[in-house]
Amino acid sequence: MSANAPQLRPYQTQAVDNVIVHFRGSDDPAVVVLPTGSGKSLVIAELARRARGRVLVLAHVRELVEQNHAKYLAYGLEADIFSAGLKRKESARQVVFGSVQSVVNGLEAFAAGDFTLLVIDECHRVALRHGGAESEVQTSAAARARASSSYAQVIARLRQARPNLKILGLTATPYRLGEGFLYYRHYHGMVKGPEDAFFRDCVFEQPLRVMVRQGYLAEPRRLDAALAFYDFSHLVAQRNGQFAERDLNGVVQGNRATPQIVADVIERARDREGVMIFAATVAHAEEVLGLLPAEASALVTGATPGPERERLIAAFKARELKYLVNVAVLTTGFDAPHVDVIAILRPTESVGLYQQIVGRGLRLSPGKRDCLVLDYAGNPWDLYAPEIDQARPDSESEPVQVECPECGFANTFWGKRDGDLVIEHHGRRCQGLLSTRDAVDRAQPGAQDDRSNPEASASAGVGAGANKGKGTASGANKAKGAASGASNKVQCTFRFRFKVCEQCGGENDIAARACGHCGERLVDPDDKLRDALKLKHAKVLRVSGMQLQATTNGRGVPRLKVTYHDEDGDTLDEWFGLETRGQRHVFARLFLRQHLRAPGSDWQPASAEEAAAEAHRLRAPDFVIARKSGRYWRLGEKLFDYAGRYRTAEAADG
Q: Which sign, positive or negative, has the C-alpha torsion 125, 344, 36, 432?
């Protein structure tokens, strides 16, 4: 190795070590998360240098292929490049850096299949699943099919010759628009993404806030527009999670705010070095360009010819141009450290995209004190906030911490607070990871009150991660232990919201179609409603409100009366006693677990009066089904989180 080889920072060394530890004990595909500007290329180079077998490093653009290749050459080592855009197609050396499209078009050059490690840079761009690949979110079905096909074909070819191929992804934003996290388990001891995620484990992550605090990245200084801005709040995203160009143009085209916005950018950037402006559409970008100093500005779009694009980017990097306007083409694979102003004139559909945009200005450069982030689009994202798997349910929701009542793990879900009290959350299942022994112990009779979870023993051997609950590993010094024990961890089986199997009583995800315990088909809510509507002695109430009242029954005994109202004034009631410990236990099991807006909390009212006073902590079902019993209606099924074909009440309470 060259005496002038790059020196890794501590977090880069830790990332490399964690990857090696993980792959020594597992063949599961893994992910390393490093913020933009943190030196992913150097981590890739060090891994390639230390690898014993052959290494293929894939990227989606030739700029990244060049960057990664250059970092490896800095070690004084040689490597091949396989990229039509770089006019090189070499694949003989131990390490090959390639563009994915060139590699998939030249798979015959990789027919030997003797690669032991495949590295995918910017792996958030492609949605991979166990047994195949799905596409990145793009604008056309054809583009999605190509992305899916490319990575899937390369992986399939390499795995044909070596089934235990190690696959590593690197990204600054480990989530995809509308899908959540791209990996299943995090080495700090939590489940983050779907169980069928292709990447099984995140083995190292360096938070952006830590990078800024330690001086490895420039500090982002965000300023929201006070006078001139665009209002994108009424736009509705398409099925792919992105906004339609016609809708964006409807806001920005000919907008009187544009000249004011551009003038504000110019004024605030007067003493700055490099300004990147992210426009909403091509037409919008062209209008913005026309308002900037012509001799100091340029525009790059997806339609800009390759040579022209290279010339403009080179001029910008050489500081011959001060302003570079673009439309969704310079969010990744672009490195211009002198950039110290980011102007956002478009809505960003996800925190990941927002972080990618702002990340263009966070690299260090001589004389650079910070990066000014000017947002003229009212984007709601916190640069440092974590992504949450589900979509934000409404504008008032925020990330809240919810402790699992079984394993103690501190989950993060969308929810709402009343002061420090979490009064609502939208979590379904605990994200904590347990050792397989703990999981099996919890599945034994008596290990849980009123719950049986054969799912715990059935899932043993599936997972990886770290420790459970409050004992999770934290800090780089514990990361190796977490990575090495990954294959011995399984997800906690506690469900905050659930669907009960009528055959075995097992609890399942609210969207499940078959029971994960006994395998029986779960009855569809629409079937339940349809069957009940056919019965003479059954009543279906479309719930528009729920009322709790502390009262007495016909014998004068204190009771809690719960009344469900429909839109036409019809009602159904159920009654509970809360005077004894046994009654409160029944109330918690039969009522609270389903009705709590923040399920899993330890709130259990000691009296009917307390329950009625705290009714805001409870949610109403969408439907209740009752059957005639003598002169009375007896409540049976309650349907929550309904998403079927029947209409729900227009003004449901809770």
A: negative
CB-based contacts of 564, cutoff 8 Å, min separation 6? 541, 543, 545, 546, 571, 572, 573, 620, 621, 624
- Nearest CA to 494 out of 529, 523, 456, 526 is that of 456
Q: Provide the 8-state DSSP code for 521.
A: B
**What is the structure's pLDDT at 110?**
87
Residue 451: predicted pLDDT: 38
532's CB contacts (< 8 A; 6+ apart) are: 538, 539, 540, 625, 637
In Å, how far are 2, 46, 57, 76, 185 from 98, measured between CA atoms? Answer: 24, 17, 6, 19, 28
The pLDDT tens digits of the residues spanning 238-286 come to 766 678 888 898 898 888 899 999 999 999 999 999 999 999 999 999 9
117, two tokens: 């490690």
Q: Find the farthest-apart pair of alpha carbons in the chain and give their distance in angstroms, rounded.
A: 92
Within 10 Å of residue 242's Cβ, how many Cβ atoms? 19
CB neighbour list of residue 512: distance below 8 Å, 6 or more residues apart: 499, 522
Alpha helices in 257-301 (DSSP H): 257-268, 282-291
> 626, 609, 603, 615: which is closest to 653 by C-alpha?
615
Distance of CA 123 to CAs 54, 57, 95, 168, Å?
20, 11, 19, 9
- 599-608 confidence digits (pLDDT tens): 988 899 999 9
Cα distance between residue 503 and residue 513, in whole Å: 13
d(CA 623, CA 218): 53
- Give the CA angle between residues 68, 69, 73 to the nearest 5°: 120
Q: Which of 497, 431, 496 is nearest to 642 (CA)?
A: 497
Pairing of strands 339-344, 370-375: parallel
